[in-house]
Q: What sequence folds into this?
């Protein structure tokens, strides 16, 4: 699926449209619906009507109202969307309460798709309805959980990400809506965005009055402190601020001697600072736990190459390439190390292969130009 609209558009297959006889109309509490407006019904509802042998004139208006709600849930760009909106409000000025009730009833029955459609319809007709948006986000989350249970991970991620976006919209719409911050904290934490999770929960504590929820969040924040510190540290390293990053990461090393991601990021920080022996030690610790961890093999190879241990560097690059044969970056690294050794043939083979895999990569292009310059 490319986007959420594509998923819901597929649900239009469950709709059928009834056309009134020319110049006829139906009266919906004083609102005349003419023959130019097609009246939608879900297929299930239509089958029920047919079984009861109702004539066109006798078809229940409630069936059309349900069809309109369904249509506005699956296709907000439908040509007659605004007409349907006027009709359902004429039918019942408290129609929003009914749609919400129906969506919640679908949740109770385990009919998640139908619940999503009704909550989405309510959001589409009233974008200011925070409760509708919240329940729509919850139903998307529930859909994701069901998909995860049957091992449809990619589909589950799709709906979970959409759920996260809806929760984000909620706090934009109402910055004091506590349940939105509560849920977003979990969404961010589960996707390992610990700093964002911390921000959400700390904001929640500023105005939440639910003692039980406050206690739960305070405990979660305490449990997550090291994760936040790690995230802040590795982001500093990735942004080229190795010294600041190591200030965050090194205190964690004493507590988590077998946290390989932590050790890797410390190694990366040391390498950025030109402290290659210290970096080498960190990558070797990772490889003692996971001998074929490709990124660590590559980083260790780079450190060894700088330390003029070319044979050892080539050995690490080769091991990495055996696990990831088409990694053009590692091929370039090995090729340049061969070049340092003076092995032009092997250097040429690696760099040419890297270039054939990704001729757009600037580092690969530079390596190829350097090789050609030496050959000339």
A:
């Amino acid at each position: 699926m490319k986007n959420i609209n594509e998923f819901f558009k597929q649900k239009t297959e469950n709709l059928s449209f009834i056309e009134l006889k020319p110049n006829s109309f139906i009266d919906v509490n004083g609102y005349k619906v003419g023959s130019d407006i097609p009246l939608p019904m879900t297929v299930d509802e239509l089958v029920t009507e047919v079984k009861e042998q109702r004539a066109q004139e006798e078809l229940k208006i409630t069936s059309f109202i349900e069809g309109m709600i369904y249509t506005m849930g699956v296709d907000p760009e439908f040509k007659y969307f605004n007409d349907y909106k006027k009709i359902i409000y004429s039918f019942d000025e408290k129609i929003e309460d009914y749609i919400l009730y129906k969506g919640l009833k679908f949740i109770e029955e385990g009919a998640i798709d139908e619940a999503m459609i009704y909550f989405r319809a309510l959001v589409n007709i009233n974008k200011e309805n925070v409760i509708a948006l919240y329940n729509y986000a919850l139903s998307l989350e529930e859909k994701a959980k069901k998909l995860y249970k049957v091992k449809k991970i990619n589909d589950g991620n799709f709906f979970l990400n959409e759920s996260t976006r809806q929760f984000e919209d909620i706090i934009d719409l109402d910055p004091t809506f506590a349940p939105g911050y509560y849920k977003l904290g979990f969404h961010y934490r589960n996707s390992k965005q610990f700093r964002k999770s911390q921000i959400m929960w700390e904001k929640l504590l500023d105005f939440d009055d639910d003692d039980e929820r406050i206690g739960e969040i305070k405990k979660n924040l305490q449990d997550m402190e090291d994760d936040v510190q790690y995230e802040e540290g590795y982001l500093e390293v990735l942004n080229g601020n190795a010294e600041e990053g190591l200030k965050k990461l090194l205190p964690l090393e004493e507590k988590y001697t077998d946290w390989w991601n932590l050790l890797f990021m410390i190694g990366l920080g040391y390498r950025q600072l030109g402290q290659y022996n210290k970096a080498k030690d960190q990558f070797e610790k990772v490889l003692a736990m996971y001998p074929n961890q490709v990124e660590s093999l590559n980083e260790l190879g780079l450190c060894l190459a700088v330390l003029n241990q070319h044979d050892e560097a080539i050995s690490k690059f080769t091991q990495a390439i055996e696990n990831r044969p088409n990694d053009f970056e590692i091929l370039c690294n090995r090729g340049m190390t061969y070049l340092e050794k003076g092995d032009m043939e092997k250097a040429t083979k690696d760099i040419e292969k890297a270039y054939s895999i990704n001729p757009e990569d600037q580092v690969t292009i530079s390596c190829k130009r350097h090789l050609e310059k030496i050959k000339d």
Summary: The CA atoms of residues 97 and 122 lie 9 Å apart. The chain is about 70% helix and 5% strand. Residues 53-58 have pLDDT under 50 and may be disordered.
